[in-house]
Amino acid sequence: MSDLVKLTIDGREAQVPKGTSVLEAARLAGVFVPHYCYHPSLPVVGACRMCLVEVEGWPKLAASCATPVAEGMVVKVSSPQARAARRGVLEFLLINHPLDCPICDQAGECDLQDYVFLEGRADSRYTEYPKRFNPAREFGPDVLYVQNRCILCTRCVRFMDHVAGEAVLSVSERGDRAYIGVDSGRALDHAWAGNVVDLCPVGSLISKDFLHKARAWELDRTESVCPGCTQGCAVSLETRGDAVVRIRPGRSAGVNRGFICDVGRLGYGPLNRTDRIETPLVPEAGRLVPADWDSALERTADLLRSAKAPWVGLVSAGASCEALEAAAKLLALGGGSGAFRVPEGPEVPLPGVPDLALRKERAPNVQGALAAGFARSWEECLARARGAGLVLVLDEDPAGIEPPGESVPLVYVGTALPESARGAAVVLPCTSVAEEEGSFVNLRGMRQSYRQAKAPPGMARPAAWILAEVLAALGAGVPA
Amino acid sequence: MGYPHPSHPRETVLLSRYFGDAEARGYDGWIKRGGYQGLEKALGTSREQVIEEVKTSGIRGRGGAGFPAGMKWSFMPKERNGPHYLCCNADEGEPGTFKDREIMRWTPHALIEGCAIAAYAIQAEQVYIYIRGEFTEAIAIMQRAIDEARAKGVLGPNCMGRGPRIEVMIHRGAGAYICGEETALMNSIEGRRGNPRIRPPFPAQAGLWGRPTTINNVETLSAVPHIMVKGGAWYKGLSLSSPKSTGTKLFSVCGSIAKPGNYEVTMGFPLKDLLFDLAGGMKPGRRLKAVQPGGCSVPFITAQEAEGALLDYEGCVAAGTQLGSGGAIVYDDSVDIVYQVSRLARFYAHESCAQCTQCREGTAWTLRILQRILRGEGRMDDLGLLLDLGEQMTGKTICVLSDSCAVVVASAIQKFRPDFEAYVRSGRSGAAG
Description:
- The complex is a heterodimer.
- Chain A is an alpha+beta fold.
- Chain A contains 11 helices and 24 strands.
- Among the domains of chain A are: about 5-80, Ubiquitin-like (UB roll); about 280-475, Rossmann fold, CATH 3.40.50.740.
- Helices cover about 20% and strands about 20% of the residues of chain A.
- In chain A, strands 2-1-5-3-4 form a 5-stranded mixed sheet, sandwiched between helices. A 5-stranded parallel sheet of chain A has the order 17-16-20-21-22, with helices on both faces.
- In chain A, a hairpin with a 6-residue loop joins β3 (about 50-55) and β4.
- In chain A, α2 packs across α3 (about 110-120), α7 packs across α11 (about 465-475) and α8 packs parallel to α11.
- The mean pLDDT of chain A is about 95.
- By secondary structure, chain B is α/β, with parallel strands linked by helices.
- Chain B folds into 3 domains: about 35-235, NADH-ubiquinone oxidoreductase 51kDa subunit (Rossmann fold); about 250-330, Ubiquitin-like (UB roll), CATH 3.10.20; about 335-425, Up-down Bundle (de novo design (two linked rop proteins)).
- In chain B, strands 6-5-11-8-9 form a 5-stranded mixed sheet, with helices on both faces. A 4-stranded parallel sheet of chain B has the order 3-2-1-4, sandwiched between helices.
- The chains are: A alpha+beta, B alpha/beta.
- The interface of A and B includes residues 93, 96, 125 and 175 of A.
């Protein structure tokens, strides 16, 4: 194809589309070129000069991020000249750097640390005193700017300008007095502003929420789907032990191309709640008491066998497709149907990425619930529950059922026990999105699976497993 | 008081002929002196012929880089499928250079005429003259002349009553040296931070507001009417030396010199004669120590190197320096070269736009080392370190501000090493004082 360009990078043949940068071509050929200002989602400025490479026959080194490939080009990433130039950049970046890695949240995932180890000098020739000092500044609700660590790559500036479409950040001053400034009278409070923390290649822009919480190398990372809204962003749940300490964009580009909003980023609180149900519970002398799974499931099956039709379901649009499908199948046995409700908030798009927004509907599996046959008729279902033969609640708060669970038996499957479900005939503890495998269908109909990031509390089991066990006990078989 | 000095017989006064002649500032006065004949002639020929004539003249960019102007114009797209722009670079911020200011102060219509010819040749309707903000007098004079030219129909919907639409607008700089770099200048006009842009794309492909753009220096554009009137071949024939350096050049002579000022000579004029004949030589009892013949961003040369140097692009390179913008800074034996170099480094460190790492950090580090040497806390290996930093700052950044700082420091250390060593040894200047 004529649209492909052939070139050689550190001895490796590469064939890449015309218009590709040398840096991207090298990446495709398996050769890494260190870089700071370059980011695939941002406009190229070619300013940090870290990605300098040698091109055979060229009088000067080339910034590989800003140099398009040409037919027959011979690129040398690791030639002595190129390495010396990059070593020079690293030395310049370090002269005013505080070297406070032991107290820096970025340590362990810092491009400055990494590249200095990769090809920097072992010593310093900077003997001037003192290093430049500027106090840290609050940029917004969650972003702190530690100017002393800033290398002026301007990724944050370009993100806010070109991707978020709200240019509140800019470079102020000149020379080595330059720093990132916020427009006067404004703050970095855009719903997608937290991405500047991920984009910052060093520890200059940091999350106040994560401040001094954990070291990067202590964390386990699990690919998941954000439960915050119907968008279905690929996220990484970062855990230490059984606590989620941070949510960041997933490693796969996903529908979100490596960005997540602050609602998703900071929405991990419910995943760490400590008031969880840890065992099945059954009523005994007016109180709910712990039971083992076998007896609780048996009791559930008995309840269902003797319950009159119709049954009514009140389910969560945050439950997995697998759980919702099982719940629908179970309800069908009693000639019943169910409903869900969705909390809402303002929709905030990220203009720089097509079809990406913090969505108005703040639950991850609205489409999955609809596909399983559930409707948005929450209030109507709640009213119907009064005359029903049985009510099945899947991780929801059935407040408003009157009278709660007295005339109508209530089967409650959930992570925590709301006041409204204390009259349940049986309580079955289920796992949260962080503790199970499952899938959500996003607003565009894309079904995406997520993985287990931490251990469930006590005896909690995935809702899909619980409901399948109940179906099996009824002889109804496991849903496909 | 008129202009500081009358023309010297050895000058070739083309651009500076009416310096000091207040009447030449006005439209009528300018017409009386033969003004706008070049534009008339240009409009009477095709734009290809105009470009061809400028190519024939061999005129090279007078802002410092020395790129052939006709060739630059020919890079503009032949087909016009949207706006083209002409920017006149009048952001003369180079310490020691003050020629463009004088052209604008005394002969504003020469610049307007040159702009109009260039705009016609490259099919630009809008011309921006980006003037250094501190040049308040030049800005006022230029604005008056533009208003006058528009009232007389030189500019406006029909240039000279028969040509295309040509409008000229002044954009005032806001105090940043870097905005004299052509791509930073375009960013500044667009209202952005004045940072140089990466190339490609080149301005002729995508410049101001992403449209094809040509940027020329004041002195270059002001010479164009003469080329139009008398022909490219005539202009080229003015050169005393290399066929690659043609026409006349204004030199702003300053520093340790008897008669500082602007002198216009033909390319190839001996540097020694410029300094000792035209500019009156050294002050009494002083000897020439060093010169930067092309402004503060070119390498220092010693008195010995200056001896046989010829003032053209090739001659300056042969002498170990560059023609640059033609701001000859003269240093006599009373000058503390180490202090002067630190003063220049301070300028570059102050003016670095902060984009490229080598420049942002390198200029500031260089300055700190030099200041430490001046405080008497220098070490011998500082000199090697300075040279090594200079190496890292050369040829690796978006624009040449970093290179300029490096070459100035490096050439000073190489040529006046004993001065630096004296500071390191005794903590004091070795200059004759």
